[in-house]
Design a protein that fits this description.
Layout (H helix, E strand, L loop, with lengths): L7 H18 L1 H4 L3 H29 L7 H67 L1
């Protein structure tokens, strides 16, 4: 019996390309879909950790009696859960650091813009006054 060919990958790529073209052609309409994208990404992030843990637990339970694995098997399970917890913790810390750095950079840009505007206007004013004085002489 011939295997049925799946076009799911092509459908996904087509949807991505269509979305990019649509966003480039109609940016004001595409921005209205922003909240849907945010909700989708948050739901996806919420599902990642439980999905990984459940798949690992399914794999471990599929082995049968865990006591047959002995000490190396128990060590491997503890090692896996420890590294998974550390990965989640590091991810959360890094995301929060990036967000705080982004906030600091935004504050820095605002300060530089205000300071830069003040300095720029002073330079223009001084240059303008110097030209007027030199023209009067």
């Amino acid at each position: 019996m011939p295997k049925k060919k799946s076009f799911l990958t092509f459908y996904i790529l087509g949807a991505i390309i269509t979305a990019i073209v649509f966003a480039l052609m109609f940016p004001e309409v595409a921005m209205k879909f922003h909240i849907g994208g945010e909700v989708f990404l948050k739901l996806l992030k919420m599902m990642v950790v439980p999905l990984v843990i459940s798949s690992v637990m399914s794999g471990i339970l599929g082995l049968g009696d865990i006591r047959k694995l002995g000490r190396p098997g128990g060590t491997a399970v503890v090692y896996y859960f420890t590294t998974t917890a550390l990965a989640v913790l590091v991810g959360i810390v890094i995301v929060n650091l990036i967000l705080s750095v982004d906030w600091l950079l935004d504050r820095f840009r605002t300060t530089v813009n205000v300071f830069g505007d003040a300095v720029g206007s002073a330079v223009v004013e001084k240059t303008f006054v110097q030209k007027e004085c030199s023209q009067k002489e």
